[in-house]
């Protein structure tokens, strides 16, 4: 495993850039953790392991990555340290994982430098920045697969593949990670996909304190080797005198030096970290020999966050994420469905005059269903925190439109949420759609991106967004009028009001009003009441790690939300309402998916099951993701009637919806 700088050089006096933890505060804390792990009798250490595991903040999450008992009878016991028994397929899975690990060979003056890397998609390789620091270095390097001993002890010749940094290359010196494309065929004609790849799960919680990890590596450029359960996770504080440490994982070692760029695995052969540095013991004297007490790896979750933050500003980050997603079975996040016409200049209409908003009947109606659902308590906590943009002249927070309302996020400048009443028995379809996008004069322009954000010619960007309705165009288009002309006018008014920037969020993927519309139409059909009424609450999920976009645009940059939520409340009978919560978007980052059992060993759900990126979840999950409070509405949640382990479910087709 890793002890000293991890790349080696053959017949050369030149040393690679060092890969050693140098912060004394970090070293001291790791040394204390390693000493605690070794303290006491074997029985005492086992008891301590149980305590360390169960008190780890990621313990509950970690259990979600363990296979069921019939597939892995001792998986739980190994995590807490009360069993060392492994299913016999553990070795087969390790053998399969090892195929994707390669030796990286870089020509240097007087010889070659060696490191380790591994495939994370059919064409994408991961290693350390201190192994391949630039595209120029990568262009000279070679990835050698299959350099290992076979069952008879015969050493196989490596199969070399050229790296292809012109197709994709991205690196971070801070995280010590490099991603680079690899040629599809070796010089011998052997295809790269023969070696498979190691899927990267972006969530945290794949290991807990005290758990054993395994590393597959090319130590010192030697044939491929493996250290099984030779390193124990040493959890330290996420922050301290040495600064933020949440990006890194530490694990003990008493073995020989290993290879920079090796994958670090948990018991399910899921990659938890990219091995990159050695941790020396605190120096007792200046002349004392260096003692290596632990290693440091870069968490896969940290690498994923870095890529996500750069998604819309670095084309290589976007391409890397798309390749990683495809390797997991996810389609690309940015779909080509954004119409070309939506990216070119369109007439941005002037705001409506204040007289349009004098009607006291406009806006979301809390008493629309048999149980009143007030809007203000839902966002009250966010308003107190200063997260809800104020209207002009102290008029509150709620923008009232024809049959719906919107609230804007004060810092993110997109809608915090919308709420609409839908009367399915009195819908009026406008004769012709007309995209009349405009700002709302009742709230300051700084809170509502306009076409400076959405129109292509405002700036040169690699990615462009269209305006995605939160309240879909048809939802507010209904009328109780008996006069046909008035009904037509009401339908047009509902449509026009939906074309406010205060009702728009950047359309990142296949999320759009048509997708949600199919869902809403389906739910309306479930009504056993002649009224066919539905209230729908919708909004983005804002996360601190959302990617930035539009630094060159007026008013930019913006952080782009990648996930959206929806809660539909149906008047199912004349006296009964029922609710259902949904999330669409980058749902692989939603913690609630652990209870849906996405992962089984290395195998996620099928592509067909997750292609839509939609799931039905609980109202409580939406609350946790958004900071909103739906209060008593939770007791009407249809998902609460499901088994506790199945409250979050993929939606592959509308019939999968439970309401």
From TrEMBL:
List of residues binding Mg(2+): 512
Residue span(s) of domain ENPP1-3/EXOG-like endonuclease/phosphodiesterase: 401-637
UniProt GO molecular function: endonuclease activity; hydrolase activity; metal ion binding; nucleic acid binding
Record-annotated DNA/RNA non-specific endonuclease/pyrophosphatase/phosphodiesterase domain positions: 400-637
Pfam families according to UniProt: Endonuclease_NS, Trypsin_2
Positions of the catalytic residues: 469 (proton acceptor)
Keywords, in A-Z order: Metal-binding
Coiled coil regions, renumbered to chain: none
Domain of life of the organism encoding this protein: Bacteria
Protein name: Peptidase
Species the sequence originates in: Sphingomonas naasensis
Top-level taxonomy: Bacteria, Pseudomonadati, Pseudomonadota, Alphaproteobacteria, Sphingomonadales
